[in-house]
Write a structure and sequence with these properties.
The chain is α+β, with helices and mostly antiparallel strands and 326 residues long. It has two domains: 87 residues, SH3 type barrels; 234 residues, Nucleic acid-binding proteins (OB fold (Dihydrolipoamide Acetyltransferase, E2P)), CATH 2.40.50. Helix content is 14%, strand content 27%. The longest helix is centred in the first third of the chain and has 18 residues. The radius of gyration is 21 Å and the shape is globular.
Length: 326
């Protein structure tokens, strides 16, 4: 009888595992981890996962303490489960926690002309198409694979003649569906939810918690997997208040194509405003990046970004100063 109960229990567990929608489960590396060809340390790693990198689960349950995963670049293998945090996603509209906000500073440089909501009727010009010439070669408007629709937006270099000044919360509150990691796989209904907000020229004030130069790993498809520091994007978490955690941030990104005409945009020049009580004003284009939904609640609070950034100003000596005139 005990053996019968054991068999029944195993059958029920198998049915539960089969019922899991594996495509809706991802994992984030909690620390640097090795991706291996099988669930063991017998063979050398096939790739390295960096802290914060997200992967898809190929199988819902670990085997021998390892998870079977697939990276955004298509590398498949096994990673030690203790190094990963499982994130389950489901259909519907994304709602992310923004944490506990601090009281805005009385000296906040945001003025009364800033609007608190994105107007769906604002102009949204189509992005231009560019080719980047870097140390590793030429990279076209859509990179070398991945989400070509999103990559083309990431790689735009056109500059708006006028930015809409909006509050941080106006950007953070823009809606979007939880859908596939590539816009090329979205349904028309899903696309319709973001169209009113995609590609708006905006300016927003916030506080930088880090400047993450993406010159590690195998690179990103938008930049043809180049990895030299001048050829990659910067991921910059922008929070609403100086003491807000990174999990509440909106990610804004500079790109190598835009930085070519802004030589004073360097991490060293901007370092005094990282983890500082002094704000920055970021201008650029609104863009949704569906690839990073596993980062929600840990490295960002929304999939909406300002990407690419086309203007950076810092608050210095009581006024806004364009970084280009440092």
């Amino acid at each position: 009888m005990k053996r019968l109960f054991t068999i029944i229990g195993m059958m029920l567990l198998s049915l539960f595992v089969l019922a899991i929608d594996v495509s809706a489960i991802e994992a984030i590396a909690k620390r640097k981890a090795t991706l291996r060809k099988d669930p063991s340390t017998t063979h050398a790693p096939v790739a390295i996962l960096l802290e914060g990198e997200d992967v898809e689960l190929v199988e819902p349950a670990p085997r021998k303490g390892y998870l079977h995963v697939r990276t955004p670049n298509g590398d498949e293998g096994w990673v030690y489960a203790r190094n990963m945090e499982i994130v389950s996603t489901s259909s519907g509209v994304a709602v992310a926690s923004t944490g506990t906000a601090t009281t805005p500073s009385a000296s906040s440089p945001i003025h009364s002309g800033v609007v608190t909501q994105i107007d769906p009727n604002w102009d949204k010009p189509e992005p231009n198409s560019t080719t980047y010439d870097g140390p590793d070669g030429h990279c076209g408007a859509t990179g070398d694979g991945g989400d070509a629709i999103t990559n083309r937006r990431k790689n735009r270099t056109d500059i708006s003649s006028q930015y809409h000044e909006v509050t941080w919360k106006a950007l953070q509150a823009m809606p979007y569906p939880i859908a596939a990691k590539s816009l090329e796989s979205w349904t028309q209904d899903e696309i319709a939810q973001i169209q009113p907000y995609q590609g708006v020229p905006v300016s927003v004030v916030g506080y930088m918690t880090a400047i993450k130069v993406q010159d590690h790993g195998s690179g990103e498809s938008t930049n043809c997997h180049f990895t030299n520091s001048e050829e990659v994007d910067w991921h910059v978490p922008l929070v609403e208040h100086p003491s807000s955690p990174e999990a509440t941030s909106i990610v804004v990104e500079t790109t190598p194509r835009v930085r070519k005409t802004h030589p004073k945009w360097t991490p060293s020049n901007l370092s005094p405003w990282v983890n500082s009580s002094a704000p920055v004003r970021i201008s650029g284009w609104t863009m949704i990046d569906p690839e990073h939904r596993a980062h929600l609640g840990k490295y960002r609070s929304t999939l909406w970004e300002v990407h690419p950034v086309t203007k950076i100003e810092v608050f210095k000596d009581g006024q806004w100063v364009d970084v280009d005139i440092f």
